[in-house]
Amino acid sequence: MKLVTASIHNEQFIGVIYGDKIIDLKKAEKDIFELTSFPKSLVDCVSLGDKFVQNVKQIVDKIAGKEGAESYLYPIEDVKLHSPIPRPAKNVFCVGKNYREHAIEMGSEEDVPKHVMLFSKAPTTVIGHEDEIDPHLHLTKELDYEGELAVIIGKKGKQISETEAMDYVFGYTIVNDITARNIQAQHKQFLLGKSLDTSCPIGPYIVHKSAIENPYDLTITTKVNDEVRQNGNTKDMIFTIEHIISTISQGTILEPGDIIATGTPAGVGKGFNPPKFLQPGDLVEIEIEKIGILRNQIMNP
Are residues 282 and 214 in the same domain? Predict the structure, then answer.
């Protein structure tokens, strides 16, 4: 089940991928069941948990061959996909150096962390699939990419144990943790270098966890202008999703719609000699197995 926040004819809606089309869930529910129970935002839908998922499944099951379904069944190419969560309620949680080889390419063996390393990106950084990334040329010549698996939290919790942590996961998506390396280095703490406007592309979908049996065997590939830069696998994470969720939640409440980016594998631009930083016009594509492709171009000012 791939869920989206999308718009058509400037009208935003919550939808689900159906083959090469997208179902407008609210319109479909009204036609099929003569009621409208879906909230307006995907975050509010996620907070309904299994009830929301079951309602979506019922609609998908009944739409095949349904007369008049074309009024709420749109070809994907006609639809604008936004970030599934266009404006997170709080900062995006991010895990740093969660892949050994990436930690080494950013420094040395001594940089491989012994504890979860966390930072965040401001909600204003978030953009969607095929939105343009501002290069901020007045601030940086060292703009970098980081392809990451992200976890979407499905229910409220605090002091969550590792054994219970996956019960709090609703699904998964892709994050590109765009980073201004010079600002990151200058400020030591990562917030400014990670929080430039448009520096957090997310999407194109939230894939419900039922569609991903094992999140620790997913290939992550990042291409820049069709050149493969990152080719990793989530099996190489240092800290598990369960451990990350448990660590964050010990003193911080996690809520439905919270986003946790789980770290990036080796192959970022800074890791090359000489570095391969992003330039205006570059096309960045991040593909994660069983989720999809997140595609964004660096804006030509």
Answer: yes
